[in-house]
């Protein structure tokens, strides 16, 4: 009996594997969803005929469409980079089991993101990056409580405010309680003063990309730092006029931290930076900060491979070759060290020859003098 069961079990496993491989060929799509997709196509301008397959037959086989292998519902639409224009049809609302919608790298004529997208409640992945949307991001997106990934990044940076996305009130972001990955490059947050408090209530957030968001403020005090899983934080190219807030150094899960190109971050970077022991990439360049307390502590960051601290106000208080603390602990990990234009004096230290994994060393535009140490010759990966 057991042997028979075992054989049956193996056979059914084999069958499942075969069925999955060719799944979408066999699944026939549901009539009402097929009609909804045709309606979607009818308001899209498709100069490159990327939707040519969207006409007859099984819609589960159309370009960019995936259906669930059992329920047959359309579950994914991926029309990334398809030169699409025109209107996004509300017929998408018929697709109540859609979990993945990617319309990135198209050109929707600088119209606003349609409000009804916030009603496709099944969505887990929404990518509208560089799709030519502008205007206020609809707060209805806050209803997407299953969303794991939201990408609204926009690279149309040089254009006027008529051509960018805006978030004036970020409160709706705090409702996206399943969110893990938020990318908002280029979205105008000028008036969204509670952005940090709103993001702090996302319990699962791992990735926060807020580059070029015109952020002006960052709270110095954050009573409860909730960012338990945050490992990627990019706040570069904003206009934050502040000292580096101490709560940042409580986010010990951070692996990637980029605060560069704000120009207005100022003051002493606290030695507590040594608490971020998982940090792999640290980018602090182009700020008015003083690193003289922090730099000698970085030896504690046993995973640090990339350190950028260019164009800062002050790096150290002493000649470079006298840099103490435990910076030299980084010798076995550091691959890139960039300390350009930061008023370094003294000479290039002999101990730099111990940084055996170094591939890039930038120390130009400082006031270094003296002998170039022969230990540099040990850096065979440079
Ligand atoms: C359907 O897909 C799921 C997930 O991709 C898979 O685990 C399951 O085995 C598939 N079922 C069939 C009958 O193909
Ligand atoms: C879009 O597609 C074109 C050609 O198909 C390709 O050259 C380009 O790199 C793609 N762009 C992106 C962002 O994927
Ligand atoms: C969104 O789509 C673009 C390509 O169109 C891709 O580069 C990017 O990684 C996607 N974002 C996410 C978060 O998956
Ligand atoms: C969320 O959805 C509800 C109905 O499902 C709607 O009444 C509400 O306006 C939506 N919220 C937002 C912020 O749009
Ligand atoms: C950003 O938003 C602010 C406030 O609405 C506005 O004054 C500014 O012009 C906008 N800038 C851009 C480039 O969108
Ligand atoms: C921390 O996250 C929890 C769960 O999402 C939330 O209830 C709480 O309000 C958050 N705390 C703060 C200070 O935002
Ligand atoms: C930063 O803000 C302070 C006031 O808080 C102000 O005095 C100073 O001029 C600002 N600095 C810059 C560069 O905007
Ligand atoms: C950094 O760690 C030290 C020692 O564990 C602790 O006393 C200090 O409060 C931490 N700093 C921050 C900002 O959490
Ligand atoms: C680096 O120095 C700090 C303070 O001087 C110390 O707490 C830490 O343990 C040192 N780390 C290593 C790896 O030596
Ligand atoms: C560099 O390493 C050598 C041996 O590996 C060691 O003797 C020397 O003290 C180190 N130099 C510095 C400045 O850490």
Automatic annotation (TrEMBL):
Question: Which SUPFAM superfamilies does the UniProt entry name for this protein?
Answer: L domain-like
Membrane topology listed for this record? Single-pass type I membrane protein
Q: Which residues form a coiled coil?
A: none
Outline the extent of the Leucine-rich repeat-containing N-terminal plant-type domain: 31-67
Q: What is the lineage of its organism?
A: Eukaryota, Viridiplantae, Streptophyta, Embryophyta, Tracheophyta
Q: Which organism is it from?
A: Dioscorea cayennensis subsp. rotundata
One Pfam family, short name please? LRR_14
Q: Provide a GO CC annotation, any one.
A: membrane
Protein's UniProt keywords contain Repeat? yes
Give the UniProt subcellular location, in the record's own words.
Membrane
Every Disease resistance R13L4/SHOC-2-like LRR domain range: 172-310
Signal peptide positions are 1-19
InterPro entries, alphabetized = Leu-rich_rpt, LRR_dom_sf, LRR_N_plant-typ, LRR_R13L4/SHOC2-like, RLP23-like
Organism domain of life: Eukaryota
Where does the protein principally reside? membrane
What is the name attached to this protein's record? Receptor-like protein EIX2
Ordered alphabetically, the record's keywords are: Glycoprotein, Leucine-rich repeat, Membrane, Repeat, Signal, Transmembrane, Transmembrane helix
């Amino acid at each position: 009996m057991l042997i028979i069961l075992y054989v049956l079990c193996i056979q059914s496993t084999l069958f499942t594997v075969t069925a999955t491989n060719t799944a979408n060929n066999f699944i026939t799509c549901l009539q009402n969803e097929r009609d909804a997709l045709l309606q979607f196509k009818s308001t899209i301008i498709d100069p490159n005929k990327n939707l040519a397959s969207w006409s007859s037959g099984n819609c589960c086989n159309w370009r960019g469409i995936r259906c669930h292998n059992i329920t047959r519902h359309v579950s994914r639409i991926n029309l990334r980079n398809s030169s699409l224009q025109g209107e996004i049809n509300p017929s998408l609302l018929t697709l109540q089991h859609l979990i993945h919608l990617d319309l990135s790298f198209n050109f929707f004529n600088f119209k606003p993101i349609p409000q009804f997208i916030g009603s496709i409640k099944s969505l887990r992945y929404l990518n509208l990056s560089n799709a030519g949307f502008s205007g206020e991001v609809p707060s209805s997106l806050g209803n997407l409580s299953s969303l794991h990934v939201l990408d609204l990044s926009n690279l149309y940076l040089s254009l006027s405010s008529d051509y960018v996305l805006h978030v004036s009130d970020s409160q709706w972001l705090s409702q996206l309680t399943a969110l893990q990955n938020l990318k908002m490059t280029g979205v105008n947050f000028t008036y969204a003063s509670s952005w940090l408090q709103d993001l702090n209530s996302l319990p699962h957030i791992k990735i926060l990309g807020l580059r070029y968001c015109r952020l002006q403020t960052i709270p110095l005090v954050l009573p409860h730092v909730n960012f338990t899983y945050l490992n990627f934080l990019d706040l570069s190219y904003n206009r934050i006029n502040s000292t580096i807030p101490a709560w940042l150094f409580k986010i010990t899960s951070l692996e990637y931290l980029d605060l560069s190109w704000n120009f207005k971050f100022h003051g002493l970077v606290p030695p507590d930076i040594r608490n971020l022991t998982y940090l792999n990439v640290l980018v602090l360049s182009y700020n008015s900060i003083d690193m003289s307390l922090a730099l000698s502590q970085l030896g504690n960051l046993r995973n640090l491979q990339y350190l950028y601290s260019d164009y800062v106000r002050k790096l150290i208080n002493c000649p470079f070759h006298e840099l103490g603390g435990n910076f030299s602990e980084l010798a076995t990990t550091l691959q890139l060290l960039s300390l350009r234009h930061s008023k370094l004096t003294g000479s290039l230290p002999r101990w730099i020859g111990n940084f055996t994994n170094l591939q890039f060393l930038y120390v130009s535009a400082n006031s270094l003098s003296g002998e170039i140490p022969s230990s540099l010759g040990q850096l065979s990966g440079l």
